[in-house]
Amino acid sequence: xxxxxxxxxxxxxxxxxxxxxxxxxxxxxxxxxxxxxxxxxxxxxxxxxxxxxxxxxxxxxxxxxxxxxxxxxxxxxxxxxxxxxxxxxxxxxxxxxxxxxxxxxxxxxxxxxxxxxxxxxxxxxxxxxxxxxxxxxxxxxxxxxxxxxxxxxxxxxxxxxxxxxxxxxxxxxxxxxxxxxxxxxxxxxxxxxxxxxxxxxxxxxxxxxxxxxxxxxxxxxxxxxxxxxxxxxxxxxxxxxxxxxxxxxxxxxxxxxxxxxxxxxx
Length: 266
Known about the structure:
By secondary structure, the protein is α/β, with parallel strands linked by helices. The protein has helices at about 10-15, 30-35, 65-75, 95-105, 120-125, 155-165, 175-180, 205-210, 230-240, 250-260; strands at about 5, 20-25, 40-45, 85, 110-115, 150, 165-170, 185, 220-225, 245-250.
């Protein structure tokens, strides 16, 4: 992902009919069918690509099994070279999780990943919607996970804490106060979102929020939450801004506490 990862509704309107662009709606099926969706979008609900249980210290957290991911994308007609544009109706947090999953599963080996700024509401303000399912032709999709990913495990996070890396807890202040990784700073992922537009705050405003937390370029940054959903949004934002040294603690607090690691309260 790069600075082009975040796209507007206008960009989507201009590219939606491109045969190499697949729009992915990650809302529940009843919302997709009943409320409506971006014309031509395929439905891949969040629960469809979410493992049921985190797996402790191994680093894989709640990522889906690669074979299940492959079958899921094939059933929606996704090709390895497609540009995937994901959206939800929750400020993009679930869409971001889809994109991070695709990244870890190697989609950027041939294809590209895009995040619709302002979620579904950004589209509905000025563009038509449709209801019902979209018929697609099943594809052939191979999962080839890259040799290097941003994922880190419990041991790597513990080492980052010792080395003075900027460990970022993206949960609410209340959750953070109840217990967090020692030394972590609290950056509620919603601080980067404009509640009125439902999209990201202007770039300068986002940069200012990050800087106020010590999240700056040149620092080693480690992100976590509870089960890696909320950090997906923050990860996408940081990649959009051009941050390079960003680690993704997939196991998050679930794995940290399961491993018996210490927590801090304040």
